[in-house]
Amino acid sequence: MPNVITRPGWYLPEKLATPESVYRNRRRFLKELSIIGTASLFTSTHAAESTAKGYPYPRNTTFAGKDLRITDEEYATGYNNFYEFTTSKTRVKRLTDRFVISPWDLEIAGLVDKPLKTTVDELVASMPLEERVYRFRCVEAWSMIVPWTGFPLSKLIEKVSPKSEAKFIKFTTFHRPEQAPGFAELKNYPWPYTEGLRMDEAMNPLTLVTTGMYGKPLPKQNGAPLRIVVPWKYGYKSIKSVVKIEFVAEQPKTLWESLAPDEYPFESNVNPKVDHPRWSQKTERIIDTGNRINTQMFNGYGEYVAKLYPNS
Ligand SMILES: Nc1nc2c(c(=O)[nH]1)N[C@H]1C(S)=C(S)[C@@H](COP(=O)(O)O)O[C@H]1N2
Ligand SMILES: [Mo]
User: Fold this and answer.
1) Total tally of structural domains belonging to the chain
2) 213 CA: nearest ligand 1 atom
């Protein structure tokens, strides 16, 4: 059962968790991000050269990506939720130096006819990469607009031929306390971080296996070398630094669901009409400008996904 100690950080009211003044003011943001941690200015945060091949990839504008104002890259890559490193969003970036992202083994297992043990480099080389500009909405009521690079998860699913009993996909993140200080900080969390999707959600063309952003390989703090991006769901469904993808018959228990099922249920579609138990979900703050805008049902992707949820 969840208790006070194991509550996720964003159990705090948003105003306490993320002082708005810090993110409203660019100079203060940059100060917090890099002047305090001067060393990080000189550290490359991008993936190894081998995975950098071909960037930038052509943009696919099919999914409402044309008129969106892209978030300042420094904010999208400097204000991160990645609890394996720390709960402080502006400190994640400089705590990733010991995190080894290459080579990176990836296992695709469970109820499939063709299970796969591969590396990210090998897998990505066989996939059609493209860029997609998506809105991204955290459950904490902040948002950004990011050009991700990746390929549809459906392409990977087709490659491994799921059995008919496979109804869900479970994703698992790395568990390496020696490379990431957050594991020790949050000892009571049920690591590793896991997430999941229904098979029809995983097959939806919006669901992206993501290896890059802003025309470059993913920075470590954003989930290198490979993460999932599910743009119509709250950000915690977009699991970072995945090591295992499993096809399963039963709905998997996710990390956040086991910590606080009433607050972070499995489905977690963005919905301005359903408030978080502790704060409103009607509006969201854009991280670089500080402007507050209305949150859209399914984060604006209803055209593509409303049919999956006939009762919403
Ligand atoms: N493995 C892992 N994945 C994760 C998280 C995390 O702490 N660990 N945080 C989630 C949350 S709450 C959000 S909002 C997004 C943040 O992604 P970003 O740092 O690229 O903005 O990652 C999600 N994926
Ligand atoms: Mo989030």
Assistant:
1) 1
2) 20
